[in-house]
Design a protein that fits this description.
By secondary structure, this protein is of the alpha/beta class. The chain is built from 9 helices and 9 strands. Among the domains are: 164 residues, Alpha-Beta Barrel (TIM Barrel), CATH 3.20.20; 39 residues, no CATH class. It comes from Xiphophorus couchianus (Monterrey platyfish).
Length: 305
């Protein structure tokens, strides 16, 4: 979650530009880049139809309980309290994006979606592009990793949209270890697009999805999550790819049923964060290597010279 209270901190709006010169030639694949999960979900619309990826049980639930059901769904589907601009100002540089079409939409519009529909893709991309135009040394990663009801014509539309919105800011595919801030600044590239679909093989600026693997712990247990992340560190160090470490707890059906009215934030995010702090208020985890530390992580090469 980009922020627990929906506020951004402008000190982080230009954090890449502010890095010491010694970091300018470090491959970005070797750096810890802050990102957000279901990045667009701040915009989820309770008045929208249910997304096509939802199972029949959810569809039936909404058909019976209508608006009330959608209000409850939003409490579990919205993983962000900040829009794209606020996330960028807070330092977020990786965006997890899921794309969908709406059933029987004559305009074949593309939307962000997570259970319910969110903003249009164009609206989100233009907001990101505006930020990049004002912060010329900041670089972002767009990870298009789920597509619902998206046909070839929609993929073509999305590729054309990316070209139109970002233009020369789009970085073509090269070896991941070549991608440094120095390289990107010299070329005036600011956007890396990862695309989990065969279309990536046909377009020079679409990085194949396998270059951004994102293993998923699928647990509500914070200890199991940390163990999973520690075990995946070796994979993250593989040469030739970037890597997503998903520091995300995933509710089970039983979890949702128990906290139906409370929502994701109260049931999981705040409660489990409080439990970990109460257990050991001094000990923290380095989110680059997921090792325990008290004051500073001394084992992670990302943060040490």
């Amino acid at each position: 979650m980009a922020s627990s209270h929906g506020r951004s901190d402008l000190r982080f709006a230009d954090w890449m530009a502010s890095l010491p010169q010694s970091m300018h030639t470090v491959p970005l694949a070797n750096m810890a880049i802050p990102g957000s999960h279901d990045s667009f979900s701040f915009y989820i619309d309770e008045a929208s139809p249910v997304g096509p990826e939802q199972p029949e049980t959810v569809q039936n639930f909404v058909s019976v309980f209508g608006t009330v059901a959608k209000k409850l769904m939003r409490k579990w589907l919205a993983t962000q309290t900040m829009n794209f601009t606020s996330q960028l100002e807070a330092g977020i540089r990786f965006f997890d994006l899921r794309i969908s079409t709406k059933p029987r939409d004559p305009d074949n519009e593309l939307y962000f979606a997570h259970g319910l529909f969110s903003a249009t893709v164009r609206e989100g991309l233009e907001q990101i592009s505006s930020f990049l135009s004002a912060h010329a040394k900041e670089v972002i990663f767009l990870d298009f990793n789920h597509f619902y009801g998206v046909q070839n014509l929609h993929h073509e539309k999305l590729v054309a949209m990316l070209k139109e919105v970002f233009g020369e800011k789009l970085c073509p595919v090269v070896f991941a270890q070549e991608v440094t801030l120095k390289y990107l600044w010299e070329k005036e590239y600011q956007v890396l697009v990862f695309y989990h679909h065969p279309m990536a093989l046909e377009v020079p600026f679409l990085w194949p999805g396998q270059m951004m693997p994102a293993p998923w712990a699928n647990t509500t247990d914070p200890e199991k999550l940390v163990q999973f992340l520690q075990a995946s560190v070796t994979d993250r160090r593989r040469k030739g790819t970037f890597f997503v470490s998903q520091v995300v707890l995933t509710p089970k059906a039983s979890t949702v049923m128990k906290g139906m009215a409370s929502g994701l934030r109260e049931t999981i995010t705040e409660r489990y964060s409080f439990q970990r702090e109460a257990k050991n208020p001094q000990q923290k985890h380095c989110y680059a290597c997921f090792q325990h530390y008290d004051r500073a992580c001394k084992s992670c090469r990302v943060y040490t010279n």
